[in-house]
Amino acid sequence: MRIIMLSKISILLTNHQLTLKDISQNQHLAEQDLKKELNENPDNWSSSVLSALSSSLNMRPGDLLELLDPVYSLKINDHHQMIQGIYIEDPEVYEQIRFVVESEHLEGWQPDEEDILRLLDEAINPSPKFQTEISRIWGEKDE
């Protein structure tokens, strides 16, 4: 996650032909302090660092934060039987996947389209290894 964040910042700075040294000089911040904070999660940046970076990029602080760390949204459409934009044809399978997604989402999971496709594939074509493990957990005998 940190590497992705630093990559996004590097791209922004490159596109605006800026360096951390430029920002530190123009905004009267120590370059080392700027580097140190940019290695942190943007939620932990001081207001002076956020302000320095956003003003140097001609952006509002909130827009910069949104660009660096977009807000996650779980999209479930019961009417069209879609989760994260993935259509699930079978109503029973849709309900099962929806239950798993909502339960795990409450625990902090943020599934994307690929995750939903994996769940759908596993629901339609369950792997024997996975089925054996479930049977073992529930104490069921192979028939």
Automatic annotation (TrEMBL):
The lineage of its organism: Bacteria, Bacillati, Bacillota, Bacilli, Lactobacillales. It comes from the Bacteria. This is HTH cro/C1-type domain-containing protein. It comes from Lactobacillus gasseri (strain ATCC 33323 / DSM 20243 / BCRC 14619 / CIP 102991 / JCM 1131 / KCTC 3163 / NCIMB 11718 / NCTC 13722 / AM63). Residues 8-67 form the HTH cro/C1-type domain.
